[in-house]
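How a chain folds remains the central question behind the approach discussed here. In the encoding step, the backbone of a single protein was reduced to a row of integers, each denoting a local shape. We regard such an encoding as a compact summary of how the chain folds. The sequence in question and its structure tokens are set out directly beneath this paragraph:

___
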Amino acid sequence: METAVRADPDQPIFVGEGCEISPAAELLPPVAIGPRMPGRRRRVVERSVLLDGCAVEDGALVSNSILSAGVTVESGARLDGEVVAEGERV
């Protein structure tokens, strides 16, 4: 799938097995996304780490953050500089 990626070859993007990245998503490196993140959503993830099974809903922004396994970021949410505990919904 084509995703809007503003990539610098020195800034990595790591995407785990089973992730679905929407063509409407924006990944701004460095980004690490764990396995099994659902796709088909318009979202922005930049300079962040998302562990196994995180879901970032339509219109959400995750920046400079670390999301533990199973976190859901609700539609329209804005996270900047956050560390979110496992299974939380924000």
DSSP finds no helices and ten strands in the chain. The CA atoms of residues 31 and 39 lie 16 Å apart. The radius of gyration is 11 Å.
